[in-house]
């Protein structure tokens, strides 16, 4: 089933070289669109928020989020996924904070 939706990804943890490159690669290589990025860094800690758009199958989305979580865990990062306010069907309801 094809979906066309937007969602948010929040990332936090220790700031290290290569994080943004790795995480953006996880999104782009899985055919997800990065619509916006916000970044904050303070005393060696990093906070990121990605606005992500997708027009892919549910199976592809599951694979993409798994890839993202795996890459984030290599850097010791916490990840959470959230539906955007205008997404009424709650398509990320099974995704949790990692």
Overview of the molecule:
- This protein is 28% helix and 37% strand.
- It contains two helices and four strands.
- The protein has a four-stranded antiparallel sheet, with helices on one face.
Question: SSE layout and pairings?
Answer:
Layout: E1 5-14, H1 19-28, E2 33-42, E3 45-54, H2 58-74, E4 78-83
Antiparallel strand pairs: 1-3, 1-4, 2-3
Radius of gyration: 13 Å
First-to-last CA distance: 26 Å
- Round the mean pLDDT to the nearest integer and report it: 84
Low-confidence stretches: none
- Main pleated sheet: 4 strands, antiparallel
Number of helices: 2
Strand content: 35-45%
Notable features of this structure?
98 residues, alpha+beta, 4-stranded antiparallel β-sheet, 2 helices
Summarize the structure.
With 98 residues, the chain is of the alpha+beta class.
């Amino acid at each position: 089933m094809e979906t066309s939706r937007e969602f948010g990804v929040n990332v936090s943890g220790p700031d290290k070289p290569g994080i943004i490159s790795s995480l953006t690669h996880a999104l782009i290589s899985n055919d997800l669109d990065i619509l916006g990025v916000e970044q904050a860094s303070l005393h060696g800690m990093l906070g990121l928020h990605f606005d992500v758009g997708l027009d892919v199958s549910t199976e592809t989305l599951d694979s993409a989020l798994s890839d993202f979580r795996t890459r984030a865990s290599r850097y010791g990062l916490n990840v959470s996924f959230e539906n955007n306010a205008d997404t009424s069907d709650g398509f990320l309801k099974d995704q949790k904070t990692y």
